[in-house]
Design brief:
Layout: H1 2-11, H2 14-23, E1 26-28, H3 37-56, H4 63-75, H5 80-107, H6 116-138, H7 143-157, H8 163-171, H9 178-210, E2 233-235, H10 236-261, H11 294-302, H12 306-318, H13 323-326, H14 338-358, H15 367-390
Antiparallel strand pairs: 1-2
Helix pairs in contact: 3-5, 4-5, 5-6, 6-9, 7-8, 11-12, 11-14, 11-15, 14-15
The structure holds protoporphyrin IX containing FE.
Length: 402
């Protein structure tokens, strides 16, 4: 075995890579449960790839046959239901992890110098994931898929100048049909997916260049011992690899519970209207997006004018990109910034309230929630440069705390 290891290492820098990224990669010793999210996201992406590949072996992207082929996977293919539910529920659970992962970054100021690029690449992955989820959403060609495809491509159509041409390109013609499904499948399973995979690779390389942040927001690299290693760091392997295996066990238990006991999550993970075939003659009274896209949809509806709504929605999506430069506080972690901590809590409550409103029919009684929510969401980012400059901060300790 040792000989094989030597043979291999002369031809491929396996040991150097292991040393650099695992055994001699020092991570802060005060990671909490929120630091499981990165490795769990990696696991989930790999699972989506495998289950997606298996689904493709039976899926047919042609008009009504698309719907029938998915029903065939559910009812006539051995273990087909399991593979499909793993793939469908996997999407919602990935977004649960993404929101925890992003929220963690905001709580501990992980977007601040020197991690700006890491944040930007991460947030780009999030936007790409929204696109990937939408492409997949249309593929089963249930009635909701059809009308969701209509709504999103009509938003594309409303973009200035390039909109109409882009919408035809996206649909593969004037309407949603076989040409749309074929190009959505090609994008979903090949191009878009691999762009996400490449972005994840860059995300992790960027992380290893600067090192992980931690709940205290202290740079462990600035305090090294006589051996040249950070005094508050521990080797990623074996310490965190073993810890991550525990996290994977807990997470897979949750995943299994969802699939076996509540695979549609009462219509939240898989809507009822996806169980009837696409029908251009039967429009749905209220087409709402899946829960993880609903906050942005609620903001789109907050302004009754279509162009204004689209502008607000795009603004809401892009604002987090600028977080590293909007935050001016000398302190990173919200542990030592009570005002910022309260702001994040308010932002989180607002975001999930908007997700709930986005799922409701477009009635006047929700206008206040939609507008108030949008104002708080946008206000968080626009006021941060001012508030972060004067907010009182607590003393940050020299060493990481437990
Ligand atoms: C599928 C998508 C993603 C994957 C697979 C992924 C993977 C990872 C991994 C493995 C880590 C190190 C472990 C950890 O800190 O949990 C990490 C850290 C990080 N990620 Fe991601 N990530 C993804 C999406 C995102 C997004 C959407 C953002 C931000 C908008 C983001 C921002 C960060 C930041 C700031 C860190 C460093 C956190 C710290 O050190 O405190 N990531 N990511």
């Amino acid at each position: 075995m040792a000989n094989f290891g030597d043979w291999l290492n002369k031809r491929f820098p396996l040991r150097e890579l292991m040393r650099e990224h695992l055994t001699e990669y020092f991570a802060p010793k005060n990671f909490n449960f929120l630091y499981y999210t990165g490795s769990l996201l990696l696991l989930m992406i790999v699972m989506q790839f495998i289950t997606g590949f298996l689904l493709m072996a039976h899926y047919v992207p042609t008009g009504p046959e698309a719907f029938n082929s998915v029903q065939g996977i559910m009812y006539d293919t051995r273990w087909g239901w399991l593979i499909r539910y793993m793939h469908v529920d996997g999407v919602s659970l990935i977004f649960v992890l993404l929101y925890l992962h992003i929220g963690r970054g905001m709580l501990y100021g992980s977007y601040r110098k020197p991690r700006e690029l890491l944040w930007i690449v991460g947030y780009t992955i999030y936007i790409l994931m929204m696109g990937e989820a939408f492409l997949g959403y249309v593929l089963p060609f249930g009635n909701l898929s059809y009308w969701a495809g209509q709504v999103i491509t009509s938003i594309i159509q409303a973009l200035p100048a390039v909109g109409p041409a882009l919408a035809v390109l996206a649909r593969g013609g004037a309407g949603i049909g076989t040409a749309t499904l074929e190009r959505f499948l090609a994008l979903h399973a090949v191009l878009w997916f691999w762009i996400i995979a490449a972005a994840i690779f860059i995300h992790i390389l960027a992380l290893h260049q600067v090192g992980s942040n931690n709940p205290d927001g202290i740079e462990i690299k600035e305090n090294k011992g006589a051996d040249g290693h950070p005094v508050d760091g521990i080797p990623f392997h074996p310490y965190y690899t073993v810890k991550d295996i525990f996290g994977v066990g807990v997470w897979l238990t949750i995943f299994a519970a969802v699939i076996f006991y509540a695979p549609t999550m009462h219509g939240v993970f898989l809507e009822r209207t996806t169980f009837s075939p696409a029908n251009p003659m039967v429009s749905l009274p209220d087409v709402t997006p899946p829960w993880y896209l609903a906050p942005f949809y609620a903001m789109l509806r907050a302004i009754p004018n279509k162009d204004g709504g689209i502008f607000l929605m795009i603004l809401a999506v892009v604002l987090p990109f600028f977080l590293p430069w909007l935050d001016r506080s000398p302190v990173k972690s919200s542990r030592y910034r009570p005002v910022y901590r309260a702001m994040i809590l308010l932002l989180a409550v607002t975001f999930f309230t908007l997700a709930w409103v986005g799922e409701q029919p477009p009635l006047p009684k929700y206008f206040l929630l939609e507008r108030g929510g949008a104002a708080i969401y946008v206000g968080f980012y626009l006021l941060l440069p001012i508030i972060s400059r004067w907010e009182p901060t607590r003393k940050v300790p020299e060493r990481v705390t437990s």
